[in-house]
Amino acid sequence: ERAEWRKLKDAASVSKDGKHFEVAANIGTPDDIDAVVDAGAEAVGLFRTEFLYMNSDKLPSEDDQFEAYKKVAEAMHGKPVVIRTMDIGGDKHLPYLPLPEEMNPFLGYRAIRISLDRQEIFRTQLRALIRASHYGEIRIMFPMIATLDEFRAAKQVFSEEKAKLVADGVPVADDIKLGMMVEIPASAVFADQFAKEVDFFSIGTNDLIQYTFAADRGNEHVSYLYQPYNPALLRLIKNVIDAAHKEGKIAAMCGEMAGDQVAVPLLMGMGLDEYSMSATSVLRVRSQMKHLDTTDWAQVVDEAITTCQTNEEVKALVEKHLQA
Ligand code: PEP
Ligand code: MG
After folding, report:
1. Closest alpha carbon to 145 in 204, 233, 105
2. Which ligand has the shortest distance to the CA of 50?
3. Alpha carbon of 133 to those of 8, 138, 171: distances in Å?
């Protein structure tokens, strides 16, 4: 089986009925990029930049960040690299950046909330990203966006830093795409409005499931509520994909669910464009896609979100169709 998958390394990701998708990979450090190239991923769908901040005893400099982003962009030879601005807070702490003690850190001061508040940190990161954009196809993504105001504020800071770099004669790509993680239910519900202003969405199901079912993703006592096939969640995801497409924008997913064998057929039936996962899953998913007909699966999606009532019912429905 694995030998069969290897043959797909340089192949496109295509369904049985000829629809094209992108199978991408998630990375956490620039060193991870070799495995991504080796798997023949069509993009880096999520570069988590926290490592730059965590593996250091001070805030990373603009130049250090620039080198890390440039390395990844160059290694991908023009394929898209989606880099997420820092997602510190929640359970990720920095010794040199004291954050307030919080009752509910996952609902607290983290990610874009810190970036918009501590703008010197955010501006440094954006400058490094904008400079690196000259060396490949870098796209910038903001984590934990809950409101349009946050997205607009982040975009404004980006535009200011880009204008300064251009004024200083620094070479930068002229059309850097800006997107957001959809991982908070408010933004999933309001996707039609966000879609008018973003270049792309990437659905972060790890957090979206946590917040939709109000169940801490690291707490084993409530892990039964991690329900990726629950029709309530599927409706939310479908809303995001439809909203993106209505505005001609890309809908991606970079949570665990994007590489899940039961979820992939449903996501293809909904028309999700890009699936970003660990590099080790890329060829397995590309191989699975070849056997799936998107029109058939659109019908299964319809049944799943209108007739099924539970996570288990949807799972059984998908498995029945996969065996057929
Ligand atoms: C997610 O929330 O699904 C996601 C991809 O981001 P992280 O796992 O880094 O929170
Ligand atoms: Mg997340």
Report:
1. 204
2. 1
3. 29, 5, 9
pLDDT at 92 over 90: no
Q: Does the beta carbon of 207 lie inside 6 Å of ligand 1?
A: yes
Mean pLDDT of 270-275: 98
Q: How crowded is residue 143: how many other Cβ atoms within 10 Å of its Cβ?
A: 27
3-state DSSP percent of the chain in helix, strand and coil, to 5: 50, 15, 35
Q: How far is CA 78 from CA 15, 92, 165, 297, in A?
A: 24, 31, 22, 32
Comparing CA positions, the residue from 50, 52, 68 lying closest to residue 110 is: 50
Atom of ligand 1 nearest to the CA of 183: 2
Ligand 1 centre to CA of 181 (Å) is: 9
**Nearest atom of ligand 1 to the alpha carbon of 87:** 9
Contact 228, 260 (CB under 8 A): yes
Atom 3 in ligand 1: residue holding the nearest Cα: 204
206 within ligand 1 shell (Cβ under 6 A): yes
The total number of residues written for the chain in this structure: 324
Ligand nearest to the CA of residue 27, numbered in listed order: 1
Q: Does the CB atom of residue 48 touch ligand 1 within 6 A?
A: yes
For residues 240 and 211, give the distance between their C-alpha atoms in angstroms, rounded to a whole number.
Answer: 16
Is the entire prediction scored with pTM above 0.95? Answer: yes
Residue 322, phi then psi, degrees to nearest 5: -65, -30
Contact indicator for 70, 63 with CB cutoff of 8 Å: no
157-193 per-position pLDDT tens digit: 999 999 999 999 999 999 999 999 999 999 999 999 9
Is 204 near ligand 1, meaning CB less than 6 Å away? yes
Q: Which residue has the higher pLDDT, 101 or 285?
A: 285
Q: Concatenate the DSSP letters of all residues of 138-194 into one string.
A: EEEEESS--SHHHHHHHHHHHHHHHHHHHHTT----S---EEEEE-SHHHHHTHHHH
Whether the CB of 183 sits within 6 Å of ligand 1: yes
Residue nearest to ligand 1 atom 6, measured at CA: 204
- The phi-psi region of residue 181 (left if phi > 0; otherwise alpha if psi is between -120 and 50; otherwise beta) is beta
